[in-house]
């Protein structure tokens, strides 16, 4: 009975924690893919709101992204965009990844 409820421990795959670099690259890829709203980027990167805000702050500080605010009916809406530097960083890491996976 217990074997039906609890699978063999060897069969359970434990997901590894992502590095800060992996998370930042995922956010940059999401923005490059056309997602510019903060919550859409958060969902694409599979992060919490607090973590997303910290990553945005880091990427803004490093000038990899910039933010624009569009005036809405009730409040300003933030949109995130890649800078040229952000595009270069993303291209560099995608190129390195393709070399390692080849």
Give the CATH superfamily: Winged helix-like DNA-binding domain superfamily/Winged helix DNA-binding domain
**Low-confidence sequence ranges:** none
Helix and strand sequence: HHHHEEH
Shape verdict = globular
CATH top level is Mainly Alpha
Query: Kindly state the mean pLDDT as a whole number?
Result: 86
How would you explain this protein's 3D organization?
- Strands 1-2 form a two-stranded antiparallel ribbon.
- With 102 residues, the protein is α+β, with helices and mostly antiparallel strands.
- It has a single domain (20-101), classed as Orthogonal Bundle (Arc Repressor Mutant, subunit A), CATH 1.10.10.10.
- The protein is built from five helices and two strands.
